[in-house]
Write a structure and sequence with these properties.
Radius of gyration: 18 Å
Distance between the termini: 40 Å
CATH superfamily of the largest domain: Vaccinia Virus protein VP39
Structural class: alpha/beta
CATH topology of the largest domain: Rossmann fold
Strand content: 25-35%
CATH architecture of the largest domain: 3-Layer(aba) Sandwich
Strand order of the largest sheet: 3-2-1-4-5-11-10
Number of domains: 2
Bound molecules: S-adenosylmethionine
Number of helices: 6
Helix content: 10-25%
Number of strands: 11
C-alpha cells in the first residue's frame, strides 16, 4: 500500500521533513496553457534546498543504477540525463564510471559542478538531445525524469536521442512513477496534502493537489508554497506523463530497444526500498507505484 499521498505526506509537526518524500517533485517545464503564478521552481532553483528536502545519504538511487549496470555488464561511459544535483552522477563516477550529467536547469548544473565534482556536466533537454553518436555505454534516467516527456513526440525525442547516444548493446536504465498505478486507484488524487519542513531557519509549508488529466494522459500537480521568511507565496504547476507499462514496452521496441527488466520493485523509491544485491522478485509485476526499466539498444 502506498502511504505517501501526493508524494508530500502530511507532516504532523511543522519543521520536520516528511517521511520519504520523493525527489522527482521538480520540473523546469510548466504545461502549455497553464500560467503559473510564478514559474520558478523552489526546489530546482535551490539545489541545496532540494537535497535537504530529499536526502539520499546512502545514494540508494545511484547504487541501484550501478547494480543494474553491473548486472548487464555495461561499459564505463554513462550519461545521467536529468541529473539534478549530480549526486547520482558523482556516485557512478566514484564507482569507476566515466559520467556525463545532463540537465535543463542551470542552477542544478552549477550546483552539481561544485558540490558533486567528477562527472562532466552539460546542459541538455531530455526530450531531444545531441551529445554525440554511440558515445555512451549506458543512459541513466532516475526519479521520473523520463516522465517530463509529456507528449508522444517528446517520448519519441527522448528514446531517439538515447538510441543515438548509445553504442550498440548500450543500456537504458530508468526509474519512475508507474502510470498503471492510477488505473482504479485514487488514493494519491484530489485531496490536498499538507507538507512542511524547515531549512536554514525558514519554515516552508506546501499544499499539494494531484489530479489526473485523462485527455493528455498526465498527472498534474499544483503546489502552493508559503514560507515564514516574508517571501511571497509561490504556486508551482508540474506534470508527469502517465506512462503505462505496455505502452512503454511498445515505444521501446519501436525505437530499437529490447526490454531486459520492467517491474515495480524493489527499487530505490519503493517501500521497503531495494537493498544492495537484491534482484527483482521472480515474476515481478508492474502494478505498484514505481516502474524500473532496464533496456538494451539493439544493434
Ligand atoms: C527529480 S530531479 C532529478 C533528481 C536527481 N536524480 C537527483 O537526485 O538530484 C529531475 C531533474 O530533471 C530536470 N529536468 C526537468 N525537465 C527536464 C528536461 N526537459 N530536460 C532535462 N532535464 C530536465 C530537472 O531540472 C531536475 O533536475
Amino acid at each position: 500500500m502506498n502511504t505517501r499521498p501526493g508524494e508530500a505526506p502530511v507532516n504532523p509537526r511543522p519543521g520536520e521533513a516528511p517521511v520519504n518524500p520523493r525527489p522527482e517533485e521538480t520540473s523546469v517545464n510548466s504545461q502549455a496553457g497553464i500560467v503559473p503564478v510564478n514559474s520558478r521552481n523552489l526546489l530546482t532553483d535551490n539545489p541545496e534546498l532540494y537535497e535537504a528536502r530529499f536526502p539520499d545519504p546512502d545514494r540508494l538511487a545511484g547504487r541501484w543504477a550501478e547494480d543494474c549496470l553491473r548486472r548487464y555488464g555495461s561499459g564505463p561511459r554513462v550519461l545521467d540525463i536529468g541529473c539534478g544535483t549530480g549526486r547520482d552522477a558523482e556516485f557512478l563516477q566514484r564507482s569507476g564510471r566515466v559520467v556525463t550529467g545532463a540537465d535543463l536547469s542551470e542552477a542544478m548544473l552549477g550546483y552539481a559542478r561544485v558540490t558533486h565534482p567528477g562527472p562532466e556536466y552539460v546542459g541538455a533537454d531530455l526530450t531531444g538531445f545531441e551529445l554525440g553518436a554511440g558515445v555512451f555505454d549506458a543512459v541513466v534516467c532516475l526519479d521520473s525524469a523520463l516522465l517530463y516527456c509529456h507528449t508522444n513526440d517528446q517520448l519519441d525525442g527522448f528514446l531517439g536521442s538515447c538510441r543515438r547516444a548509445l553504442a550498440p548493446g548500450g543500456l537504458l536504465v530508468a526509474e519512475m512513477r508507474n502510470g498503471g498505478y492510477f488505473l482504479g486507484r485514487t488514493d494519491l488524487l484530489d485531496t490536498p496534502v499538507v507538507g512542511g519542513f524547515t531549512w536554514q531557519g525558514t519554515a516552508y509549508r506546501s499544499v499539494t493537489t494531484l489530479t489526473v488529466d485523462r485527455t493528455a494522459q498526465l498527472l498534474r500537480r499544483v503546489r502552493n508554497w508559503t514560507a515564514d521568511d516574508g517571501s511571497p507565496p509561490l504556486q508551482q504547476r508540474s506534470a508527469w506523463r502517465l506512462l503505462f507499462p505496455q505502452e512503454l514496452r511498445y515505444l521501446l521496441a519501436a525505437h530499437g530497444f529490447e526490454v531486459l527488466e520492467l517491474h515495480d520493485g524493489p527499487g530505490p523509491r519503493t517501500e521497503p526500498p531495494w537493498r544492495e544485491g537484491e534482484l527483482p522478485g521472480a515474476g515481478a509485476g508492474a502494478d505498484a507505484d514505481r516502474l524500473h526499466l532496464v533496456a538494451r539498444r539493439r544493434n
